[in-house]
Amino acid sequence: MASKKNANCSFCSRDKEQTGELISSPTGSYICRDCVEICSEILAPQQSMADVADQQSEAEAVPFNLLAPKEIKNVLDDYVIGQDYAKRTLSVAVYNHYKRVQNNLFNAPGSDDLEMEKSNVLLLGPSGCGKTLLAKTLAKVLDVPFTIFDATTVTEAGYVGEDVENIILRLIQAADGDIEKAQYGIIYVDEIDKKAKKGENMSITRDVSGEGVQQSLLKIIEGTHCNVPPKGGRKHPNQDYIQIDTRNILFVCAGAFVGLEDVIRGRLGRRVIGFSDQSKGVKSDADIEEIMREVEPGDLVKYGLIPELIGRLPVISTLNPLKEEDLVHILTNVKNSIIKQYQYILMSDGIKLSFSDEALKEMARMAIDKGTGARGLRSILEKSMLELMFELPSRSDVEEVIISKDFVSKGSEPEYILKKSKKKKSS
Description:
Layout (H helix, E strand, L loop, with lengths): L15 H4 L2 E3 L5 E3 H29 L7 H11 L4 H22 L15 E4 L6 H12 L3 E5 L14 H10 L4 H4 L3 E5 L20 H12 L2 E4 L13 E4 L4 E6 L4 H9 L16 H8 L4 H7 L3 H5 L3 E4 L5 H9 L5 H10 L4 E4 L1 H14 L4 H17 L6 E6 L1 H6 L4 E4 L5 E3 L1
Parallel strand pairs: 3-8, 3-9, 4-5, 5-8, 10-11
Antiparallel strand pairs: 1-2, 6-7, 11-12, 12-13
């Protein structure tokens, strides 16, 4: 800072006596504090506009649609009934994963010094409780490629079956061949529990479909540059490969893990908990739900997953079996419910389709008895509606069809309301 007796501000021309201290430049020019403040006010809005433009360009460059955890859960609520804890866990895990990816893409402050690990997920729950639908809906929310891969089809390299690299190929195909977009997708590995080792101890025989597959999965789940055969199948020395980085791909592994509750029970030192029938040793849903909430990585190791794989799946969440009221809600209230689909089809033919409350409950009970959960509802309804859907499009006299409990359970005729008479009839 410098000043001269006869110096004036180069901007407002006032001298030192009028402005106070003057700030000098190396070239001999001066500026007063008032003019500095005016310049700051002029430049500040321009700077903020530039920041907004940068943020907009960054948002456009991000290959996914990142929402806050609460917003993610709100969308999941529209498609998946119940499983509140699992939805919260997944929402946070997915947000953390893609926020990490976003920060790395744009070199956010501190991202170079802090290396955040991937938030891959392990879902535990019975068939038909919503595991697949949760993962599929997450991909829809984020607008990223999604693929489902059945772990039971994979074997260790060199044996009959599929290589683990084919999992990545499926994702590339889901992204329509866009490698860049595929690198931010979600891979759902189903039936991972079927790859559990036969026991905790090392086997003298080769477990090509169990532990060997778990070992093969480690690198691609953790993150690596993977060489993928473009047409699938086994690798050959002279074959061209697709190179893809798996560091930003989110892996969601899932399985029913039947019998895991016994492993947890043994660790906790409990034989019977909750509402079990002690005389028969029957385990109720309430018992299994309580036990499964206590799962720890060590229990999964005892079950047969290798510690290295569990370490790469840091987020573990359990899903509960669906109850009758949950299944009824799935039939009627969720988006894209199977009943809404049938109603839409018949409405296009001018026929209203209605279901009695007892009919809905009967379908839910049948799904529970079969142990298929929500997945079984479609097959039950498809089977019940087959003959009706065959006949109705050809009839012009029907205004409404009412589905009863006996129609679902016994195959009885539904109630028809005809257009002319407006009277209920059985046909």
